[in-house]
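Email to the structure team, subject: Type 1 glutamine amidotransferase domain-containing protein model.

Hi all, the expression group asked for a predicted structure before they design truncation constructs. Nothing fancy, just the tokens so they can compare against earlier work. One-line instruction: predict Type 1 glutamine amidotransferase domain-containing protein, return tokens.
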Amino acid sequence: MAKVLMVVSAADSLTLADGTQHPTGFWAEELAVSHQVLRDAGMEVSFATPRGTAPTVDPISLDARGGVEPGDADRFRALLAGLTEELAHPLALSAVDVADYDAVYVPGGHAPMADLATDPDLGRLLREADAQGKVIAVLCHGPAALLSTTQTDGGFAFAGRRLTTFTDTEEREGGVGENTPYFVESRLRELGAIVETGAPWTSKVVVDGTLISGQNPQSSDATARAVLTALAAS
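Reply from the structure team: attached below.
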């Protein structure tokens, strides 16, 4: 049985460009659907967060404010309810040995921009996972987690790699707009990543060796299935 480490942000707010606080957390569909696909395929999934802090679900990912239909919101709530105990007691990133896992999976929501992007423990974990040929999957704003591998000399562990992420267009259309503290797509391009994007709000997955990325919540199922394919081939 393959083991997947699902790294979840512990942030419940994001400081916007104007200094105000924007309530946030993980995006319900991205965590719940990804976890369901992986678990249904027989994967052993463990959660980890900075300091082992219980993560918060972004409230707008469960209602019309986030473009979520009532029936879908009910399904996501039911899936998350089944994970209550696991999410209440995640591993601390500082205690994780990446050698114990076959894949690292980072769902989004704006929250990863607030903590995972600069978390040194995650930076270590991702660099080690990449060096060991582990599958690394990042979804929607989850690619902000890759920013944690930026070195003080400006080097970026994923420079030259093909990936996708929540696009600048999507951020302007349905995110926090120009008040975002930074655009994840633009930041990754600046650091040398090769960002490939699809039409806004449609499923898009990019596979570059063991690096798998999904563009948005609509890509949740396809991203998790790409991870299953990669693990089956390894």
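The chain has eight helices and eleven strands. The CA atoms of residues 54 and 89 lie 6 Å apart. Ping us if the truncation boundaries need rechecking.
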